[in-house]
Request: fold
Amino acid sequence: MLGIALGVTALITVLSVMNGFEKELRDRILGMASHATVTTFAGRLPDWEGLSETLANNDRIVAMAPYVRGETMLSMGKQVSGALLRGVLPGREGDVSDVVSHINGGDLGLLEPGKYGIILGSELAIALGAGIGDSITVVSPQVTIGPTGILPRLRRFTVMAVFEVGMYEYDRGVALVHIEDAAKLFRLDDNVTGLRLKLDDIFAAPQIARTLSYQLTGDYRVEDWTRQHANFFRAVKTEKRVMFIILTLIVAVAAFNIVSTLVMVVNDKRSDIAILRTLGASPGSIMTIFIIQGVVIGVLGTALGVAGGVGLALNVETIVPAIESLFNVEFLAADVYYISDVPSEMHWNDVWTMVLVSMGLSLLATLYPAWRAAHTLPAEALRYE
Reply:
């Protein structure tokens, strides 16, 4: 019983922690990325206001914001770094992303058209050695042909603030500017790259994006967040599946212990089984006795495991800091890991799946000992009694 309880507890707790990490990473990714984007295959969206009015009729779309996106090179002094320059509309960007709440010492209102202000990711600012008020040079891949030949397009921007969302990919490689400044830098005129959409259900994003792609007539391209980060979330899902299989083996080992325990019980009770058989007990009734014994072990062990697993899963975020404080250790150092806490999110479907697996393995473990008990020969068992 304790073996099964330990396995079920470990499985529920570990899966809940992995669900918590997945949710934390998903929230941080979607804090900068969008639930879905609408753009064109040419990379230019000429009338985003008209498109937003068309999309406003869709009840699944909560908010929209235009954006300009382009690869650039940032330099300050001798430090040079590539970055993704994103032009945003300060009044609307907060509706589709959480970057506003992650800006240190300012907000998107610091970006004003024509003033060429820029907000850097924290790691990008460190790599450039740039601080608030410093001027950096933004180099566009587009070129200008002049009397002296082909020249790169350069523009000086002033660092207005720094943001930190907790994902190295964004903190190291993204910079924000006003959408009009970005459009001038990339020569988009009055065009934008596309529209960012916030949906009412992030898990329905693939279906909603597919519906929009059918509804929009023209050279439009609709992508959702699952396609933009498909490899990452596929890796997380694979890791969860492998972890489930590995931890299920713990329950399988406990179920094997049921086999060994019941086999020893059968050997110890051979004479009693033989007496019952001589009194008229059928092989089926003998088999039922040992099946019930194994099932009771499985039920009680699973119940203890569910109680322990649910209790741990719901209190991991309290228990882990208490252990760290008690033993003066730090499991996830804040200066090394972006997620320094141990998050947990318990899904009841994981719990019921584990209950079914545990009960199934417990039932299977009883079949051989029960069959062996049912086929005990009374004469052989009582020969030396």
Remarks:
- Residues 34-228 form one domain.
- The first helix runs from residue 2 to 32.
